[in-house]
Amino acid sequence: MLITCKNIKISLNIRKPFDVCQLEKEGHSLLEKRQNFSFRVSGACVTVYKHSLHTLHATGIKSKSQLSLILKFVEDALDNDITSCRVDNSLFSFKNLSVAKPLQFTHIIEKIEKNTLYTYSYTPELFPALFLKPMRRREGFPTILLFTSGSVVLLGGKTIVKITDAIKMLKTLSDV
Questions:
Q1: Which helix H or strand E contains 49, and what residues bound it?
Q2: DSSP states of 146-170 as a string?
Q3: Is the pTM of this model over 0.85?
Q4: Are 95 and 151 contacting, i.e. CB atoms less than 8 angstroms apart?
Q5: Which of 28, 44, 46, 27 has its CA nearest to residue 36?
Q6: What is the DSSP string of 85-150?
Q7: 44-86 pLDDT tens trace
């Protein structure tokens, strides 16, 4: 199974306030709106809100190398230090190719009911996926959408460790 990162959104806190002049000196185009500035770095969109010039929000990150380029850009081109970095949201997906026939959710639901990490929601009339939601005390774990075709989408994981734990939990379900 090949897990693909579709999008990660991060918040970067910087030591000095964002400097528009510094960005323009480096030759980057900047889009200014009423409440924010936005620009592109290595394919990702970076937004800085005018009321919070010490925080940059980057979205559209799809790899570690792209993330490294954004961090390097902030330190070199913007001449600023990153004081903290937080993953705000993530989206991963994969197709379980070992599933030859449609998944039977009844068996999966039985296993989830015994699980202490996740609970489930399934309303096929509204949406054709089985939602696996983390228990309230398990903050930072992704919500999992499991389709009968074997496709899996992980939404909202805050750390790679928690996303990996969620994938391990999926592997314990015999049909997945």
A1: strand 44-49
A2: EETTSEEEEE---SHHHHHHHHHHH
A3: no
A4: yes
A5: 46
A6: EEEEEEEEEEE-TT--S---HHHHHHHHHH-SSEEEE--TTT-SEEEEEE-TT-TTPPEEEEETTS
A7: 999 999 999 999 999 999 998 999 999 999 999 999 999 999 9
